[in-house]
Amino acid sequence: MESLEIAVNMLQNRFTQKNFKLLCNVEKFILYAANNSLDDSNDYFQSIMDFCYSDIDVEKLKVEALIIVDFFQSVIKTNQMNIKQITKISTICEIFNSCEVGKEMFKEYHKLTKLYSTIPDTTATSERRFGTLNRLKTTIRSTMTQSHLNHCLLPHIYKEKIDKIDPRQIAFKFISSNEKRQHFFGLIL
């Protein structure tokens, strides 16, 4: 029960942070501007000013937000994309990549999407590790010590790097480091 309570408290802390609400507002602005012509959304622009400080010229962004919906609709029609409404930031990036002129025409909006896209998803790595832990620590292995569990997890987490290692070299080093091993296993060439 205590661990469940800790997990719930951590989730509540994660999603009630000021920055989380700020990032949600920036994402809402990006998507809303892509689908609708903005009249005046001071809440959104205040969030953008808080998020980007001096990276974005908010006055230019306001002007771009008024007409960018027409640009997106024309690119979608021209490229015959099957998109009714833009619901993902990745779709906006795809549209910008398909039409280089848009990046120049809507510099501030493009900068905002790039800044938003570079925010790291800090929980993804730890979530993958916990998923690995659940798969690794089965009921059969539930009695293993913490250090043994860590030694089993590390190769699984860094699988790409370990796949590049030649097992014959490891075996050769292991065997050649001890005379008893050399006698028992023989020499591997």
TrEMBL record:
It comes from the Eukaryota. PANTHER family: DUF4371 DOMAIN-CONTAINING PROTEIN, PTHR45749. This is HAT C-terminal dimerisation domain-containing protein.
